[in-house]
């Protein structure tokens, strides 16, 4: 159960206390299963609802969700759910949460994110309506009012949220980087960030995943040059695998395949769905006639084919894992083929991915991955300079690193201290600790809670 320290039962709501509680139900210091609950008196606002991976001794992976118990106990108090973007560690927990709370809870997401969520829900027989928001949207959900700021990430239609509450203003800065030459969509709305800062931000929650890296994260455009290099010397079939929802990466792989006159074969249900949705909505540009089925692929020579395949995290049952274990008769890996892993490993999943790479190598494939080719993937997360820019634009009084492991939260804090922030203005909560904001925008560490991520069933 989800309980406050030293209490056995759900605490009684004190209507007189003006305290905003910020609760990470996936746990601070956890990279995946993002879920933040903003609680003020009798109202709860949910931001994101993702899943993560847990590694088992069998080297397989299992899906886990945040701890939903507190939300289930307080489901009548939930005013809405807002999703920042369409990556699974921010939205794929919804099919496991929604059946446990009131069905009329409103859900808000950007256009592409909403389409991806609806597809994900349909897989579980759910038909919840997703309300589409954009940069001009202004939401009033109980005591919370929300404004949205477009940011660049590795998937289009990603937003930061400015949350106005009765005790202060919170800037929720989930995954982002400053990409001035994005592959698709547009640049981050830095003017709106500065405007929010000028109007007053009390607390900035900032993505901290790449706080160990100096400088800015490179633009997504760099990856296409790397794909070009990799495909030029490929004698056989060319495979690219990445996070299924990384729309811009699929676009780059299609661009390179087209330039080299290779037909594109899409393998894996998750990739097929994302590409279909993104193409229908105009986010992906696919040359006519370039995509063929696995059945037609057998009529082409290996050097005429490029495969976009799911399974970059070695997920159990994924397309790439099935191909490696010869559980598919329509796709196979042979000597001369090349497999490019254009992705970061999800923390805790390295062993499973390395095992998959070992098997591909044993089959004779030429495998490119981050340890030997550090330019085949560009992170969607900002490095130190990106974070410093966001801090400077928002001019928040208090800072709270999110989305990173404890070591990365610490490096974010050290960066902020070099920028002039005193240590006491950068709380570093324990995994199961809450954050509280009181009248006047003052921030403090709150009580610890009992927190137990759950298997996604």
Written overview of the protein:
Helix content is 26%, strand content 24%. It has an 8-stranded mixed β-sheet. The protein has a 6-stranded mixed β-sheet with strand order 9-10-11-12-13-20, with helices on one face. The model is unreliable at 1-16 (pLDDT under 50). It has helices at residues 69-73, 88-91, 94-97, 111-122, 190-199, 221-232, 247-259, 269-280, 294-297, 319-324, 350-362, 384-394, 406-418, and strands at 19-24, 36-40, 43-47, 52-55, 61-65, 78-82, 107-109, 130-132, 138-141, 144-151, 158-165, 168-173, 203-207, 238-241, 263-267, 291-292, 305-309, 338-341, 366-368, 398-402, 433-438, 442-448, 454-455. Helix 4 links the parallel strand 7 (107-109) and strand 8 (130-132). Helix 5 packs across helix 12. The chain has 457 residues and is of the alpha/beta class.
| Spans of at least 5 consecutive residues with low confidence | 1-16
Count of the domains: 2
Q: Name the CATH architecture of the largest domain.
A: 4-Layer Sandwich
SSE-based structural type: alpha/beta
**Numbering strands along the chain, what is their spatial order in the largest sheet?**
8-7-6-3-2-1-21-22
Global outline: globular
Secondary structure tally, helices: 13
The CATH class of the largest domain, by name, is Alpha Beta
- From the 3D structure, determine the CATH topology of the largest domain: Metallo-beta-lactamase, Chain A
- Total strand count, please? 23
Strand content: 15-25%
In CATH, what is the homologous superfamily of the largest domain?
Answer: Ribonuclease Z/Hydroxyacylglutathione hydrolase-like
Q: Give the helix proportion (percent range).
A: 25-40%
Q: Could you describe the largest sheet, including whether it forms a barrel?
A: 8 strands, mixed
Average pLDDT across residues? 90
Spatial gap, N to C terminus? 17 Å
Roughly how many Å is the radius of gyration? 22 Å
């Amino acid at each position: 159960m989800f309980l406050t320290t030293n209490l056995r039962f759900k605490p009684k709501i004190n209507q007189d206390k003006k305290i905003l509680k910020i609760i990470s139900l996936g746990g601070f210091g956890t990279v995946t299963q993002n879920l933040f609950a903003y609680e003020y008196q009798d109202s709860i606002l949910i931001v994101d609802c993702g899943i993560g991976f847990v590694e088992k001794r069998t080297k397989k992976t299992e899906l886990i969700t945040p701890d939903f118990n507190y939300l289930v106990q307080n489901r009548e108090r939930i005013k809405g759910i807002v999703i920042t973007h369409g990556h699974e560690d921010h939205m794929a927990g919804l099919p496991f949460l929604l059946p446990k709370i009131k069905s009329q809870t409103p859900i808000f997401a950007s256009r592409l994110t909403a389409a991806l969520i609806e597809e994900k829900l349909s897989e579980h027989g759910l038909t919840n309506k997703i309300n589409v928001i954009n940069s001009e949207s202004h939401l009033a959900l109980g005591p919370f009012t929300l404004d949205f700021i477009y940011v660049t990430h590795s998937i289009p239609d990603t937003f930061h949220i400015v949350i106005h509450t009765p005790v202060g203003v919170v800037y929720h800065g989930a995954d982002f980087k400053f990409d001035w030459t994005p592959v698709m969509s547009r640049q981050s709305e830095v003017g709106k960030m500065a405007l929010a800062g000028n109007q007053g931000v009390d607390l900035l929650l900032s993505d901290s995943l790449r706080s160990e890296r100096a400088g800015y994260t490179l633009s997504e455009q760099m990856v296409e040059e790397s794909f070009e290099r990799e495909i030029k010397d490929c004698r056989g079939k060319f495979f690219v695998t990445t996070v299924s929802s990384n729309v811009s990466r699929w676009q780059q792989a299609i661009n390179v395949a087209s330039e080299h006159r290779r037909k594109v074969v899409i393998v894996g249900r998750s990739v097929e769905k994302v590409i279909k949705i993104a193409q229908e909505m105009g986010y992906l540009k696919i040359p006519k006639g370039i995509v063929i089925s696995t059945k037609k692929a057998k009529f082409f020579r290996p050097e005429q084919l490029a495969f976009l395949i799911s399974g970059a995290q070695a997920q159990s049952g994924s397309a790439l894992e099935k191909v490696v274990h010869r559980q598919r008769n329509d796709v196979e890996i042979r000597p001369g083929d090349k497999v490019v892993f254009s992705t970061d490993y999800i923390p805790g999943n390295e062993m499973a991915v390395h095992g998959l790479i070992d098997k591909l190598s044993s089959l004779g494939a030429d495998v490119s991955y981050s340890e030997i080719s550090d330019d085949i993937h560009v992170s969607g997360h900002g490095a130190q300079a990106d974070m410093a820019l966001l801090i400077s634009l928002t001019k928040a009084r208090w800072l709270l690193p999110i989305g990173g492991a404890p070591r990365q939260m610490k490096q974010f804090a050290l960066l902020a201290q070099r920028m002039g922030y005193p240590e006491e203005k950068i709380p570093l909560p324990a995994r199961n600790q809450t954050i509280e904001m009181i009248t006047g925008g003052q921030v403090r560490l709150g009580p610890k809670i009992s927190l137990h991520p759950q298997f996604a069933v």
